[in-house]
Design goal:
This protein has four helices and no strands. The protein is mostly helical and about 110 residues long. It has a domain of about 70 residues.
């Protein structure tokens, strides 16, 4: 009996000849990605970051910081308004300033 018959012959397209699975989307051995509600926070962040360029992410961060700064300024004006309960003019001016800060940050 020859070795050729006792050993299976694998060709270039047989899975036994493939390299280890590296997660390539065209590799049938790659598992399906988890659904959004089954992902961890780290997986969700990685998924979202893969959809944006670094420049887009930086722009979003700057916009978020600007929004937070505007809200902080509005809160300071509101604090000023309520520290002057006996001065209606100062209170009204501080409330108007707070409204203005909130309008600046509105989309």
């Amino acid at each position: 009996m020859s070795n050729r018959i006792s050993r299976p012959a694998y060709g270039p397209g047989d899975p036994q000849t493939w390299p280890p699975c590296t997660g390539h989307p065209n590799d049938p051995r790659t598992p399906e990605p988890p659904e959004w509600d089954q992902m961890t926070d780290e997986q969700k962040i990685a998924e979202l970051m893969g959809e944006f360029t670094a420049k887009q992410l930086a722009r979003q961060q700057v916009e978020a910081i600007d929004t937070i700064a505007g809200l902080h300024a509005a809160l300071l004006h509101l604090e000023q308004a309520y520290r002057n309960p006996h001065s209606p003019q100062h209170r009204a001016a501080a409330l108007d300033a707070a409204r203005g800060e909130l309008r600046k940050g509105a989309p």
